[in-house]
Amino acid sequence: MSTILIDSCVITDLASPKSEWFEWSASTLEKLDPNNTFIINPIIYTECSIGFTTIEEVEALFDALGFAIQPIPKEALFLAGKAFLQYKKRKGSKTNVLPDFFIGAHSAVMGYPLISRDKGRFSTYFPSIELIMPNSINELH
């Protein structure tokens, strides 16, 4: 059994059965479920909480999904800062990207695969991450 980190966009898909990505996200987790443990971190929890009115609603979602929250190790926090600095030096201009660096660094430092639909920053700044994305699920064993 291995541990897989679940990106915020996948959880948002699962919370919205009418979303265009619901089917992909649900079937990906279903296919991987027998052999893996799914986790989130405090950044992912925070991003997902935006769509809910109460903490009880957020807690109910994560309880239903069975995802545990794991802290981000200090090594990953350090790596996230360094990767974000690289982004800024490359003239990255988006201001809402820091969460992606925390998520990517957590995945990289712990060696966790990451289920996401957002390839860009993860593959650029954390090339060691095994990304599970649309069209990659068929390649898994």
Write the layout of secondary structure elements.
Layout: E1 2-6, H1 8-15, H2 22-32, E2 36-40, H3 42-49, H4 55-65, E3 68-69, H5 74-89, H6 98-110, E4 114-115, H7 120-125, E5 131-132
Helix pairs in contact: 1-2, 1-3, 5-6
What do these coordinates show?
This protein is an alpha/beta fold. The protein has a single domain, classed as 5'-nuclease (Rossmann fold, 3-Layer(aba) Sandwich), CATH 3.40.50.1010. It is built from 7 helices and 5 strands; from the N terminus they run βααβααβααβαβ.
| Total DSSP E strands | 5
Report the major sheet: 5 strands, parallel
Number of helices: 7
The backbone outline, from C-alpha atoms, is globular
Which range best describes the helical content: under 10%, 10-25%, 25-40%, 40-55%, 55-70% or over 70%? 40-55%
Order of helices and strands: EHHEHHEHHEHE
CATH architecture: 3-Layer(aba) Sandwich
Overall number of domains = 1
The CATH class designation is: Alpha Beta
With strands numbered from the N-terminus, the spatial order across the biggest sheet is 3-2-1-4-5
Q: What is the assembly state of the chains in this entry? A: single chain
CATH superfamily, by name, is 5'-nuclease
Mean pLDDT: 91
Assign the structural class, choosing from mainly alpha, mainly beta, alpha/beta, alpha+beta, or little secondary structure: alpha/beta
CATH topology: Rossmann fold
Span from first to last CA?
13 Å
Provide the gyration radius in Å.
15 Å
Low-confidence stretches: none
